[in-house]
Design a protein that fits this description.
By secondary structure, the chain is α+β, with helices and mostly antiparallel strands. It folds into 2 domains: 79 residues, Glutaredoxin, CATH 3.40.30; 130 residues, Up-down Bundle (Glutathione S-transferase Yfyf (Class Pi), Chain A, domain 2). Helices cover 57% and strands 7% of the residues. A 4-stranded mixed β-sheet has the order 2-1-3-4, with helices on one face. Helix 4 runs antiparallel to helix 5. The longest helix is centred in the middle third of the chain and has 27 residues. It is globular. The termini are far apart. The relative contact order is 0.12. Is involved in the conjugation of reduced glutathione to a wide number of exogenous and endogenous hydrophobic electrophiles. GO terms for molecular function: glutathione transferase activity. Its main location: cytoplasm.
Length: 237
């Protein structure tokens, strides 16, 4: 992986390969050109390093910089942007109001979009999928409006380049597509959310994204196993 020599200090990233929250940090580090040691975590049997680095939430990602852990993906993104402000493109706008708007929508992805989309991810029947899909549509439409507001007619939420909202939402795109394929749904429908649909294509084609984004086929295989466990009778192995 490309790096910036000694400027980065010692960097480690604790993650799980399929996690959108880890993916967004990987893309940010790639955009900044930072070298780091990636340490895959088994979330069923959490390592002592993960538990000691994130004792509050015990979740990934955790970025460890010179022995000091930074937790929660959006916090990590802001930390990376500030700690390496002169390296690579900025992840947050320079204007204070635009920064506040970007933070709002990045938080919206985590706190509103994902909880609304999660029932579709976990649906195991046609009825569940239909209901879950209808419930998440308003959030997709809100993000369509957010894209128009944040992009100001340019390619990304961040304007000409990928920013924090692009990373927050873009890390879910491969998962959204995989879930849609299995569910027979189309959340990023060109007719309903044309700006978001075109944005998703542009985001997935960004070099830094292509270099670290897991393959859809690998995500699909993992997702099918996840659904099989959900559908299994209680108590079965």
């Amino acid at each position: 992986m490309a790096g910036v020599g000694g400027e980065a200090g010692e960097l480690q990233l604790l993650g799980a390969w399929m996690s959108p929250y880890v993916i967004r940090v990987k893309v940010a580090l790639q955009m900044k050109g930072l070298s780091y040691d990636y340490i895959e975590q088994d979330l069923q049997h959490k390592s002592d390093l993960l538990l000691s680095s994130n004792p509050v939430h015990k979740k990934v990602p955790v970025l460890i910089h010179d022995g000091r852990p930074v937790c929660e993906s959006l916090v990590v993104l802001e930390y990376v942007d500030e700690a390496w402000a002169g390296t690579g493109p900025p992840l947050l706008p320079a204007d204070p109001y635009d920064r506040a708007v970007a933070r709002f929508w990045a938080t919206y992805v985590n706190d509103t979009f994902f909880p609304s989309w999660r029932p579709l991810l976990r649906a195991t029947t046609a009825e569940q999928r239909a209901e879950a899909f209808e419930n998440v549509l308003p959030q997709a439409e809100a993000l369509e409006r957010a894209f128009r507001e944040c992009s100001k007619g340019k390619a990304f939420f961040g304007g000409d380049a990928v920013g924090i909202v692009d990373l927050a939402l873009g890390s879910f795109v491969v998962w959204v597509r995989v879930v849609d394929e299995l569910s027979g749904t189309n959340l990023l429908d060109e007719a309903r959310v044309p700006g978001l649909a075109a944005w998703a294509e542009r985001f997935m084609a960004v070099d830094a994204v292509e270099e670290v984004m897991p393959e859809a086929g690998k995500i699909m295989e993992h997702y099918k196993g996840f659904l099989a466990k959900l559908a299994a009778p209680a108590g079965s192995s």
